[in-house]
Specification:
The protein has 734 residues and is mostly helical. The chain starts with 10 loop residues before the first helix and ends in a 9-residue tail after the last helix. Helix 1 packs antiparallel against helix 18 (701-725), helix 2 (36-98) packs antiparallel against helix 15 and helix 8 (284-305) runs parallel beside helix 11 (383-399). The chain contains 18 helices and six strands. The chain has a four-stranded mixed sheet, with helices on both faces. The chain has a two-stranded antiparallel ribbon with strand order 3-4.
């Protein structure tokens, strides 16, 4: 129910009430038979009585409101029941329409089919339950074994700790002399080890020095190695290079084919055993020897040919050759010969020429791969093999270079200012490098100030340089041998000290055999305990792994069981659904009748609830009216009590003239409501005469009388104001 607000216009009632109260109070004082207290008790009793009536009316209203709320709830519930019954009736009608013999037969068939599905799912659950039971048994067994293995591991660990403690105690029982002797032995053995390492280092220095001597000796050998060309060969080669015709090529081949350079060179090198030392082809010293050797061979040939410009050799050219071969042959797995030989890496030559900003020509020989006396490898090659390879390659370029090569190698050696038709070879430096397949590469660079390939040039005066190199190498070898001798002597002394320390320790150990036996026994027990611990640890890890596997398997089969159970539950739910469908179709008539009866009953209940709601609303309206009337009566009683109290207070403190004047004023108010205006005017004039005494109550004389009249008029105005503006009613709804 909406909140309401009532305004009551009771101005005349207010004035009349005030007038009556004043008259009654005046009469009481004149007669002197009723006291102020008696008057107040009477008005207060009236207030209490009317307020009790308000409370009773409020309770009746609240009770009526509760009845309306309950009735409204019943109507809502009955309405919902009608809606639900209507839906059920509609469903029953549809079910009745669907209850044909064909549909019933189809639903019955579905029940049979679903029953088969349920049976199958139930069988699957039973089987999977058996699998879970077996897996649980395996898991329990694995758990027991893992627990046992853990206990064994703990026991073994305790045994190791006990054996370690026993060993520590036994070792502590040894005398300080034994400890000192053992320390001395350790120091002697360490000294012997250091001396042995020093001897090994000294031996390496001797080996290096011997290799340096061999390299220096090889340099001396180089000075006597030359390749000589016959006049007929030179003439035929010049004719061919001037005019590479078929006839000139045949003539050159005829002249060159009879030279047995390989056999002659092999016999010569075999006679110099100092060259049979293993070396690294990329070692700078070996590189210098190879490039100087090759350049001297080529320059000697160019001199025979009649050329005055010579090739040079430098460390920079050798570094460039090694870098090029590694990058474009080794790193790219480029086998220039072999069964699937790729030939020269032309793209690599172009790229490297651009990188160095110069002209490059390349000759490649069989190097270490083809020998009359067998093959050599990069790992075990000797200086003899390397020099032989260079000599053999250059000689091959001269005397066995026909066929598809068309004498291009010879052409690269004997041209001046150009190589193989490429200009820009005015300052040629040669670099030598071996690839990982054992082939020798001869890189010809045109050196300039920009590319600095001619920097760090080698001296081609082999004899003088070799002699100085040999002298220095021999001096280094002698120094290394002397150092090795000293180191060998120190090693012998250190070994003698080790033997002495061992003997001293043995003597002390024999003198305290019992302690040593205890130590030995403790060590044996510790070793046994550690072995047992390792065995127990291995067993523990194995059992833990088996347990983990069993746990995983159990979890997997349990998951499978849960899945089978879920499938069975779904199948049963589906079976219940199709069974319900059959039941509904079979009992369609009964269901429809029940739904119709339920619907009619719901409608009847709604009608009854609606009637009760209307009756409750009527009762609520009556209670609301009675509450409003009781509240009005109570408000008037409160006003009468307030006026009576003010009049009694005023009359109790005034003279007889004052009471007479007040009675006249009250009579005027009672006779004619318009007299109120004159009284108010009189009161205003009297108030102006008071002057400084305006703010306090008068005590004697005419001023007191005027004040009394003023008070009475004010009380009357209070009653009128109260009546004109009315009162706010209490809330009628919650």
């Amino acid at each position: 129910m909406n909140k309401k607000k009532m305004i009551r216009l009771t101005a005349l009632v207010g004035v009349a009430t005030a007038t009556g109260v004043v008259a009654e109070a005046n009469q009481a004082h004149a007669a002197t038979t009723t006291t102020t207290e008696t008057t107040n008790q009477t008005t207060n009793a009236s207030v209490e009585s009317t307020q009790a009536a308000v409370d009773a009316a409020q309770n009746a209203f609240d009770t009526a409101q509760t009845s309306v709320d309950n009735a409204q709830a019943n109507v809502t519930s009955a309405s919902n029941n009608v809606t639900s019954a209507s839906a059920t009736l509609s469903s029953a009608i549809a079910n009745k329409e669907a209850a044909t013999s064909e549909n019933i037969a189809s639903a019955t068939s579905a029940v049979s089919s679903q029953a088969v599905v349920v049976a199958s799912a139930s069988q699957a659950v039973s089987e999977q339950a058996g699998v879970v039971s077996a897996a649980a048994s395996v898991q329990a067994s694995a758990q027991a074994e893992a627990t046992s293995a853990s206990a064994s591991l703990s026991s073994s660990s305790a045994n190791v700790a006990s054996a370690t403690s026993a060993l520590s105690a036994a070792e502590a029982a040894l005398t300080s002399d034994q400890s000192t002797a053992a320390n001395n032995l350790s120091a002697a053995e360490s000294a012997a080890s250091s001396a042995s390492a020093a001897v090994s280092s000294g031996q390496a220095e001797v080996d290096n020095a011997q290799a340096a001597v061999a390299s220096a000796q090889a340099a001396e050998v180089q000075s006597s190695d030359v390749i000589n060309m016959s006049v007929a060969y030179i003439t035929a080669l010049k004719n061919y290079l001037a005019n590479p015709s078929s006839a000139n090529a045949a003539a050159l081949q005829e002249v060159a084919k009879g030279t047995d350079y390989v056999k002659e060179l092999q016999q010569k090198f075999k006679s110099d055993a100092s060259l049979d030392v293993v070396v690294d082809p990329s070692d700078p010293t070996v590189q210098e020897a190879l490039s100087v050797y090759a350049v001297n061979l080529i320059n000697h040939l160019r001199n025979q040919y009649g050329l005055t410009t010579a090739f040079g050799a430098s460390a920079n050219a050798n570094v460039a050759a090694i870098d090029f071969v590694k990058k474009y042959y080794d790193d790219e797995d480029w086998n220039i010969f072999g069964t699937t030989g790729k030939g020269h890496n032309k793209n690599g030559l172009d790229a490297y020429a651009n990188q160095l900003n110069t002209s490059i020509a390349e000759d490649v020989g069989s190097g270490l791969t083809t020998w009359v006396n067998g093959k050599a490898t990069m790992a075990t090659t000797t200086l003899h093999n390397l020099l032989f390879a260079v000599y053999s390659d250059i000689a091959t370029m001269l005397f066995d270079d026909g066929g598809t090569n068309n004498w291009s190698h010879a052409q690269s050696i004997f041209e001046d200012g150009t190589i193989l038709g490429t200009d820009g070879f005015n300052n040629v430096y040669l670099g030598v490098a071996f690839d990982k397949y054992g082939y020798a590469h001869y890189e010809l660079y045109n050196a300039t100030e920009g590319n600095q390939l001619g920097n760090n040039a080698y001296s081609l005066d082999v004899q003088t340089a070799a002699q100085a190199l040999l002298t220095n190498a021999q001096a280094s070898l002698a120094s290394a041998k002397a150092s090795l001798q000293r180191m060998t002597t120190n090693l012998m002394v250190a070994k003698v000290a080790v033997v002495a320390a061992q003997n001293h320790l043995a003597a002390l150990e024999n003198s305290s055999a019992n302690d040593l036996v205890a130590v030995t026994k403790a060590r044996t027990q510790l070793a046994s305990a550690e072995t047992s611990y390792q065995t127990a640890l291995a067993t523990y890890k194995q059992k833990e792994e088996a347990l983990k596997k069993a746990n995983d398997e159990l979890a997997n089969v349990q998951a499978s069981l849960e899945a089978a159970q879920a499938t069975l539950a779904a199948a049963k739910a589906k079976l219940a659904e199709v069974e319900e469908t059959v039941a509904n179709l079979t009992n369609a008539d009964q269901l429809l009748a029940a739904a119709q009866a339920a619907y009619e009953q719901a409608v009847a209940n709604l009608t009854t609830a609606t009637g009760k709601l209307g009756a409750a609303q009527v009762d609520l309206a009556k209670a609301e009216s009675q509450l409003a009337l009781a509240e009005d009566t109570a408000e008037q009683a409160k006003v009468r009590a307030a006026i009576a109290a003010q009049v009694d207070q005023q009359l109790n403190g005034s003279t007889a003239n004052d009471r007479q004047s007040a009675g006249q004023d009250a009579t005027s108010l009672k006779t004619n409501g318009r007299a109120l205006t004159a009284t108010v005017a009189t009161a205003s004039a009297a108030k102006q005469k008071q002057g400084a005494n305006q703010g306090r109550l008068p005590q004697t004389g005419n001023d007191d009388q005027e004040a009394s009249t003023m008070a009475l008029v004010g009380l009357g105005m209070l009653g009128m104001a109260t009546g004109l503006y009315g009162y706010k009613k209490k809330k009628l709804t919650k």
